[in-house]
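Chapter summary example: a protein plus uracil.
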Amino acid sequence: MDAHEQSVEEALLEIERKAKSCVACGLANHRTNVVFADGNPRSPLVIVGEGPGENEDLQGLPFVGRAGQLLDKALIAAGMARKHVYICNVVKCRAANLENGKWRNRPPLPDEIQACNPWLDAQLTLIQPLVVVCLGAPAASTVIQRNFRITQDRGKWFSCKWSPAAIAAFHPAYILRNGGEAYEATYGLLVQDLKAARAKVIELKKLKDQQQPILPVSETDPQMSLF
Ligand code: URA
C-alpha cells in the first residue's frame, strides 16, 4: 500500500468513527448500527446502494441480507467479488416504520438522504473511484442526476461529481421482487451492467497508468462502444 492509499484508508476510518455517532436525522433514533461500508477502500470501483435493511442494521455491514446475497452472486458472475469493490449506501441507517408492532423497511426520505450526504460525499471524495455503480433509482438520483429514470437509463454511462464514469443498475431487492422470467431478465441486466463497469475500470486504469487524461464518460463517447 502506498502512502496515498494509507492516508485514504486512515481518513475513511476517521470518518466512519464520526459517522457512528451521527444524529443528523431521525433515523439515528431507531438504528442498531450505522452501516458505513464494506469491501476494499482502495478499489477503483464503488457500488452505492440505497440504505441498510434489517440484516444490515443488525450486522453493521451493507448488503448482507437476501439482496446482498444476490449482489454477491452477480458480482461473481461478472468476474468480481465483494473484496474487489467498495460497497456503501446513500443512507447509513435503516429507514423503517413501526407497523403493528413490527419494523418495516421503507425508502429513505429526501431529507434523510440530504442529511446523510456528507458521509457519502466524504467517501467518494476520498476514494476518487474510476467507476461508480448505483443500485436503484435513489442511489442514481443522488449520485448521477436528480429524478433518474432507472428503467430507461440503467446501463448507460454518465459522469458524476466524484467520478469520470457512473452507471446505474437494477437494485437486487427489486430483482428479488420480480418473479419468473422478469427475475431472470432483470438479474441478467444486473450482471451485464456489472460486467460493463468492470470493463470500464480496466479501460480507464490503462489510460491512468499511461498518464493519459481521463475525460468524463457519456453516452456519446466512443469509449462506450465496448459493449
Ligand atoms: N439494500 C441496500 O440498498 N443496501 C443495503 O445495504 C442492503 C439492502
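Key point: Helices lie at 3-19, 54-59, 66-77, 110-127, 137-143, 150-153, 172-177, 180-209.
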